[in-house]
Structures
1.
Amino acid sequence: MDSTGSITLKQGTVTVDSLTYTNAFPQTTGRAMSLASSIIGTKGSGRAWYWCDSSGSLSGGDRGTPGQANDDCGLNVEKPLNYCAIQYPKTFPSPDGAYPATINTTDSYDIFSQFYSYDVTTRNTQGNDSYPRIEAQLGYGTDATNPAGWTWTAADFNPGFTTPNSNNDEMKATLQIPTSGTYSYGFRYRFTDAGEPWVYCDQNGKTVPPAGTYGTVTVGKAPLTNHVVISEVSGGNGSGTAATDEFIELYNPTNSDVDLSNWQVGYKSATGTPWATITLPAGRVIRAHGYFLLGGANYSGTGLATKDLGYTSFDMSASTTAGGHVRLQQLVGSAYVDVDKLGWGTGNAPEGTAAPSHPAVGGSLERKAVSTSTSVTMAVGGADAARGNAQDTDNNSVDFVTRAARQPQGSTSPLEFY
Ligand SMILES: [Ca+2]
Ligand SMILES: [Ca+2]
Ligand SMILES: [Ca+2]
């Protein structure tokens, strides 16, 4: 046989096994090339680093083990593995922006994990050893303290992993989560030998549940609406100081955080002309599927939902008995353009037809979660109560419902998904 070549074992025309060997395989004169006994019968047989010069003595001085058990080739696997961690991305979003804060239910992303164990990852320091008796999985779930109850999918050696000198190997798996929500994710490994336990890995290394600093990812459906909306307006809460106990709530139905720097929120009475405005200061962000709350001079909801920004430049209380308007504008170049607008009651400049009149003291106008939402389904305990406010056909009369009990939400309120 030559120093490079292939050996094939066939039964009839069916190839049972084959080996292609190169100069990387051990080829000392007078010594048989022997596959480590623990690798026989596995896919590891094609890897040069699992072969060794045979040590068994033969008559005449050569060495080999024909008809006998192979050498173990000094394969001293350490169990359980010494190290494993989420390699990239540690969490969403990734610092380089390649993995966003929120993904869609239909998106899939490659997630990487590295691990180390003596003779499992260290024989080939230029890339993966592809040790055949280890199994890795990527999992996700809502309970970070109980990864055993997560949904798990197989990981495999990353064929793209090459390194000039590393004792680690790298696994790759695909993350796709079909249901909206916020999840933890991580990896786990085990040797496939009978009875070996799973070893869990978080962002930093091995961990023992219920401990663990796993990655987190937020999953949403494809957005119903691609822009920030006015989600709830309450024009007042009575007379006296309660007249300015009012708020304007914004909701972000998209899968990306939105920078509200220099955006404007305006108010106009039912038939008046001038708009009174508030300009949002730099650095204000509305999170993907989150809320942002502007509170009037005597907004009283602090504790329920703290206002993110106060205003005194207008007072909507006159509009709680007749009609009015609120609009949201974005600075594009040097001009402000409408992002969303609400006109209600006798308001003369709504989107489409005006929304219903403002309800009695203590109530509000709220944007629907979905087209079928009603005042009942949007109220606390209703089917759409925690599904956001993404319904925007640009016709206020069909996009808003009245709420008898107003329900302000702000930047610290839970995210909502339809
Ligand atoms: Ca390696
Ligand atoms: Ca609109
Ligand atoms: Ca609300």
2.
Amino acid sequence: MGSMAFRMLAWSEPGDPRVENEDFVATSADVAVVLDGVTPLDRDDTGCQHGVAWYARTLGTYLLQLAGDRRDSLADCLATAIRRVRDDHAGTCDLDHFDSPAATVSAVRVRDGRLEYLVLSDASVVLDLESDGTKPDIRWITDHRASEVGRRLRAAGIPPTGHAVRTHRNRAGGYWVAAERPEAAYQALGGSVPVAEVRRAVIASDGATRLIDVFGLFDWTDALDLIEHEGVDAYVARTRAVEKEDAARPSASRVNRGKTHDDTTLVFLTRWT
Ligand SMILES: [Zn+2]
């Protein structure tokens, strides 16, 4: 077993405190996972009696456990975790339903002196790497294939409704999330960097990257500085304030076209020095 390479600080909160948080976060000494249960188009029509929060929690728990064994690659661990959840509810639920429960996944693991990462769908892993000092070396790993499906539909004159986009889920040429097909795990973006080169890192659900990718108010260096120096709570509070301000504008001038507030989950890692 290696020694702990990073401090980890996890934060998760629902977009609306009256609604169950469908994100899931878990950490162990050398692993962190963040899952974001995909909001169904119709909660009463998913083919599943368990729900999205259950899906994210169950998949995330398996993934944490399998990754902690350190034998298999993160992609293999995710494939096995997807298979296990599928087997857990294949007998009771219709997993062929086009909108059966699904989740985006981001994960990191320290193994053999390297920080391994995996991102499936629009979750993020952000690495702040040692640089020569002239400018920061930030690597932002996220998968835009779902929004590309929307763009392609629009270009073809098809309204990119939730339903139209979702029929491209987990299909070649479409986009990939964790759902009923284990092979989705091998569509994840993955890689590794030496632990010694990582100054800080964030793994996050898409609700925790809005200041950067929806509102464009921050770059990742500013965001990481805010998290490190003022706290994860200050970073999330800032997200909520900006969302609220945007929602108060007339709809034509709003930046955010999605939910006003989304479930917001991140793990912040800093290397022990
Ligand atoms: Zn189910």
